[in-house]
Amino acid sequence: MFGKFVKGICRILRNTIAVSLLVSLAPAVAHTQEKTDESPAELSRRVTELAVLVQKLQARVDELEGKPRLSSQPAVSDSNIPAPVQSSVVSQASPMSSAPRSGASLLGGTTVNFMFDGYYAFNFNNPIGRVNLLRAYDVSSNAFSLNQADLVLENAADPAHGKRFGLRLDLQYGQATATLQGSASNEPHPDVYRNIFQAYGTYVVPVGSGLTVDFGKWASSLGIEGNYTKDQMNYSRSYWFDFLPFYHMGARLNYKLNDTVALNYWITNGTQQTEPFNGFKDQLFGLNIQPHKNVAWTVNYYLGQEHPDVQFLPNYTGTNLPTAQGIPFEPIPNPPNGKLHIFDSYLTWQVSQKLTLAVEGDYVIERLLTTSAPSHTDGGAGYARYQLTPRIAIAARTEYLSDRGGLFTGTTQVVKENTFTLEQKLTDGLMMRGEWRRDASNHAYFLTDTLGTLKKEQNTATLGIIWWFGGKQGAW
After folding, report:
1. What integer is the mean pLDDT of 270-279?
2. What would the mean pLDDT of 72-96 be, rounded to a whole number?
3. From 86-90, 198-202, 261-265, the region with the lowest mean pLDDT
4. Mean pLDDT for all residues in the chain
5. How confident is the model at residue 89 (pLDDT cuts 50, 70, 90)?
């Protein structure tokens, strides 16, 4: 009985919609009969519009009667409708019609992506505490380690299809997070933001070719290497990845002048500062150049002031100091105001389908006071990667860093490293990397198995394994 009742209701609704459609089309038909002198193009447009409405009516009737849509029926695609008709279709669509409630449509094009990155490293110095010095991520030796576990949600802007807004959220956990996120020396509230690797919104302003504006927290693009291991040539990260800024909070702009040149501008709270500890706003001026389809060159200049003008006192028990979200603080009298200057450039050349070469050069200078003698850190890195087979690749990196003043290592020295990586892709979304790396200094610097005894070199062997899956294409 209930089934017959539903079918009866569907028939009534179908007849009602059909009558309504005929009534709404009658003026248009009469108008067409009156205007017998219309051009063929105008008549074709009207016929196309009527066909679209009829197909939408049929689809709605099928939905009401619970009938599946036959695969032989061509769906109405906006790409097959002239532009004037597209707007007409949108304006005349029934407010009751809606997209199927599939998971993809509910997410609105959002990709959900996961990654696990773990490793086992062996340090031939057998250092006390099993610590690999000068490493950003693979910081532990002689232990099974969780480098990072990630969740990436992205709904990217797509101005070519009329979608100018976008959002991205990256959550990260593991050793890598402790290394590069929420340092207590930089962040007044480190625990609040530590697992939020990135969180920003995007809007593409309709100016010229499109001005892309991001606001929020994002990973720094200073230096050629990035956060996600699967997108890098080697398993371990370079000195320069470890030394240059990891993230920023603020706004960034990108404008593509033409197919060859794009401009970048950032204004941020500082380096590794979601919340600032001074009132100075750092800035970056960048240039992306693609002189050839296989060559990409980036040039950046970053100006910052990384000295606090307040100090936070979390263990203070008095009552006469102001607080920021419950943490007492006091101003620093005559705070240092020396500037940070970073000159960063890197180039990638896809020599062939199998061979990729890259090079990076950096020069960093910082002063405590504007009148202080500067500390310099300069050098660079070279990269090569060769795809032996569809699943096997080899990669190498060589690097040099001169640390005059100890900005990176804490002491004046020159450090070098050479890395060789063998990559085996087991299947889509599963990769293993075996790596040999040698670090060396012109001073005894690296830890050994005896407290107080240091060596000039550090040799490590690492096996890393990376799983990932999700809808995001290309590099993360």
Report:
1. 91
2. 34
3. 86-90
4. 84
5. very low
Residues 342 and 285: their CA atoms lie apart, in Å, by 11
Going by C-alpha positions, the residue among 252, 257, 191, 192 that lies closest to residue 219 is 252
Question: Of the candidates 109, 223, 206, which has an alpha carbon nearest to the alpha carbon of residue 162?
Answer: 206
Q: What is the number of residues in the chain?
A: 476
Q: Is 313 helix (H, G, I), strand (E, B) or coil?
A: coil
**Integer CA distances (angstroms), 446 to 135, 251, 442, 443, in order:** 12, 39, 11, 9
d(CA 22, CA 18): 6
Beta bridge partners of 297: 289, 347
| Closest among 180, 200, 203, 176 to 190, alpha carbons compared | 180
Identify the three-state secondary structure at position 33.
helix
Paired strand residues for 33 = none
| Integer Cα distance of 27 and 45 in angstroms | 16
Angle between helices 40-65 and 2-34 (to 10 degrees): 170
pLDDT in tens, 381-437: 999 999 999 999 999 999 999 999 999 999 999 999 999 999 999 999 999 999 999
Structural domains of the chain in order of their starting residue, each with its CATH number: 2-92 (no CATH), 111-470 (2.40.160.10)
Residue 240: which of 261, 267, 260, 221 has the closest Cα? 221
- Structure token digits, residue 456: 């000039």
Q: Range with the lowest mean pLDDT among 50-54, 65-69, 119-123, 312-316?
A: 65-69
pLDDT of 147-179, one tens digit each?
Answer: 999 999 999 999 999 999 999 999 999 998 887
Task: Spell out the residues 6+ positions from residue 97 whose beta carbon is closer than 8 angstroms to its own.
Answer: 56, 60
> Running DSSP on this structure, what letter comes out for residue 305?
-
| R_g over Cα of the chain | 30
Q: How far, in Å, CA of 244 to CA of 257, rounded?
A: 27
Evaluate if residue 100 carries a pLDDT over 70: no
The backbone torsions φ and ψ at residue 468, rounded to the nearest 5 degrees and listed phi first, read -160, 150
DSSP three-state, residue 325: coil
**459 and 437 in contact (C-beta within 8 Å)?**
yes
Mean pLDDT, rounded, for 210-235: 96
Report which residue type is found at 399. Answer: E
Residue 230 is given by DSSP the state G
* Burial class of residue 36 (count of CB atoms within 10 Å of its CB; 0-12, 13-18, 19+): exposed
Q: Which amino acid type is present at position 58?
A: Q
Q: What 8-state DSSP symbol labels residue 163?
A: B
Q: What is the pLDDT of residue 52?
A: 65
Q: What is the 3-state secondary structure (H, E, C) of 395-447?
A: EEEEEEEEEECCCCCCCCEEEEEEEEEEEEEEECCEEEEEEEEEEEECCCCEE
DSSP state, 159? Answer: G
Collapsed DSSP state (helix, strand, coil) of residue 90: helix
